[in-house]
Amino acid sequence: MDVLTGNAIQLMYDGSVLVAPCLQISAISNFGDGLEHGNRYRVDLSDGIHKQKASLPKKYNDDIDSKRLMIGSILQLTKYIFLNSHGSRRIVILDLEIICTTHATVVEPIFLCVKQEDVVVQTTPPLCDASTQPSTSTKYQGFGRQRSLFEVRKPQNVGSIPTTITPIKNLNPYQPNWSIKGRVLVNKDIYHYNTTKASGDVFSFDIVDREGIETHVTCFNELAKTHYDNIQVGVAYKLSGGAIKLANKIYNKLNNGLEITLVDDSKVTACNDDSSIPKHRYAFIALDQVATINNNSTIDVIGIVISVDLSSTICKRDGTKVPRRTIKLVDMTRTTIDVTLWGAMAKKEGTTFNTSLTIDPLIEELAQLKDWYSQNVHTEQGIFHQLVAPAPAPQRMTISEIQAHASNSEQPFYCILKATIQQIKSKSFFYQACPTQDHTDTIWEIVFDEGAIELMGMPAKTLYMLQSDDNAEQSTADVIKNVTYNQFLLNLTCRNETYNNEEWLKVAITNAKQLDFASENSILLEKIKEMFTDTSL
Q: The whole model's pTM is what?
């Protein structure tokens, strides 16, 4: 068939990269379970002589189910990867165009046989994107539409470092070899982690290429120590090799779904400065607007330091000590805000986690800010006001409302619950847990420290003494009896947690007060008045 790209399978095996080849589906198979993970389809693609197995992304499942894609359909692969490593070959289709829904098969294709001594490990570039490839001047007619003839690019030597630069936006987890070039925007302090599974050192930095696309690079243990001493902010580097994986958004706030982890074979070399690679670009937020930003957002701010507190040390749960210092910033909105610095940043300019601190950056905004400050700091107009983010008042909720809100929220939230203590677990007063009940449902809650004292009427030490003293006038059972079946106003912290792949609602009492019936009746009367004035009821 003239429409098919002649000898395409053989050229792919030889390491050539074809731009938008046309192939025909000769077989379709479903390897999904059809249940939890849905259907997943593989196809055999034919160039009229040979055929090769290929995988389809899920977004084309509807086309197969609706028979838009079927045996005999002719496709143009606009974006694909040909995997060829140690004798394992497969086409991974990313995007395609349907040229013809059905077409007769001229000859039954066969799988291409390759001798073992001809097996090679594929190098770059594994990703072929027709939208990024230059077109040739030669056109041909096929099914009433024009397309460029494919281009053939010779493969690189096996095991060599790629000489071409891959744009960061084209990186994908299927690439065995790649090379990127970019400027380091942020390099973070080396950090020692200690978990139940492992411990070690981690170092990371952010890099941007000439197209302005950023990515996060991480390395561990010995590699972390090596690169921490060599990587410098503002310097251009060439990186090759490493594992490309999904970004961990807990530590990586960049607008990129992938990140790079360096391995022993990775190459990181400094390059001559390239003016086409952009330097750090800021999107500054005025200090008076910070209170309107959502929690856990990453923002850029610039300000003049007007006060610096003494450095203090905080002891973490694992026993390590971390320096901490608070500074106060002001900007041209005459708003001040407290900024807490941790770790090495508390002592000098630096970076930690998702925050970087630069002193006197060479940017235009700094010059404007300094001019404003020098003109206003010694005048009566130089009065500043402290930014205090208004804390949202916790809402009253019923237990059923708490459960519904938690199922739709990934963030912890605070609320007030009017409920009756139904039961208290009394095996150990060092960990209080009790179910509360209102008119909608029952829920278990835990309570510590001040909240437990307010609820029980005495500290845990006193309860322990009552529990161990057989001659005490009041027993722990009496204390529990006095608390149960009484109504309380409870301030709660609620959040969903996952344990053994099951979600459950964790509720902690932060404050407990006996119900004041007089004030509670006033609240109920106001609600009754609202019901009468609400025309929708």
A: 0.43
